[in-house]
């Protein structure tokens, strides 16, 4: 009997692992600085101090603050894609949407996450290049939502929608608004949000809660 070849497992070398850890250390420090001081206010020196690294060490990984922002944008893009994928799959559409929203809210409760989101939104209006980077994240989320809704309409789970784009925008505004609200209302727990958001989403989509 012929034995099938086993897939080769590639492990990171200690050097690669250390480099990844240092890169993560820098990006975590940058997120903290950007949430505290803003993209414009945070300096490379501040990021160095937060990361507990020398300027020379930091510049080996990122030659500029813009390069750090680009790396954060890429991580946000990957994270958003992974989270929004929970809307696919089996089970009632409303349950899948709630799972996605609750995962997002949980992530946004991490220290500095809401503040960084607010800074991204503000800087995207001032800086067209940053705006373009983070607009890609928004576009990818909208594309998946549109695909999921069209499938639900086709199967009869969701009634026909005359303006799907506006509906998606309304839902995004509600979810982003709740996430940002956590800054000033830390008692707005996930347990309190879920049943209210479920009814809101069901109403917007014309479904039963």
Give a verbal description of the structure.
This protein is mainly alpha-helical. The chain folds into two domains: about 15-65, Arc Repressor Mutant, subunit A; about 70-205, Tetracycline Repressor, domain 2 (Orthogonal Bundle), CATH 1.10.357. Helices cover about 75% and strands about 0% of the residues. It contains nine helices and no strands. The chain has helices at about 15-40, 45-50, 55-60, 65-85, 95-110, 115-125, 130-155, 165-180, 190-205. Helix 6 (about 115-125) packs across helix 7 and helix 8 packs antiparallel against helix 9 (about 190-205). The protein starts with 13 loop residues before the first helix and ends with a helix.
Key terms:
209 residues, mainly alpha, Arc Repressor Mutant, subunit A, Tetracycline Repressor, domain 2, 2 domains, repressor, Tet_transcr_reg_TetR-rel_C_sf, transcription regulation, DNA-binding, HTH-type_TetR-like_transc_reg
């Amino acid at each position: 009997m012929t034995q099938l070849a086993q897939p080769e497992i590639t492990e990171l070398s200690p050097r690669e692992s250390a480099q990844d850890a240092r890169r993560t250390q820098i990006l975590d420090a940058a997120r903290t600085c950007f949430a505290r001081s803003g993209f414009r206010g945070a300096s490379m020196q501040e990021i160095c101090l937060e990361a507990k690294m020398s300027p020379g060490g930091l510049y080996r990984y990122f030659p500029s603050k813009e390069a750090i922002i680009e790396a954060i944008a890429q991580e946000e893009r990957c994270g958003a894609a992974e989270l929004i994928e929970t809307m696919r799959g089996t089970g009632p559409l409303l349950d899948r949407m709630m799972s996605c929203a609750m995962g997002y809210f949980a992530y946004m409760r991490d220290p500095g996450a809401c503040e960084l989101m607010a800074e991204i939104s503000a800087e995207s209006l001032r800086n067209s290049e940053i705006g373009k980077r983070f607009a890609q994240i928004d576009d990818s989320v909208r594309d998946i939502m549109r695909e999921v809704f069209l499938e639900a309409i086709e199967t009869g789970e969701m009634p026909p929608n005359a303006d799907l784009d506006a509906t998606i925008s309304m839902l995004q505004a509600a979810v982003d608004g709740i996430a940002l609200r956590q800054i000033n209302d830390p008692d707005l727990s996930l347990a309190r949000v879920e049943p209210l958001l479920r009814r809101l989403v069901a109403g917007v989509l014309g479904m039963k809660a």
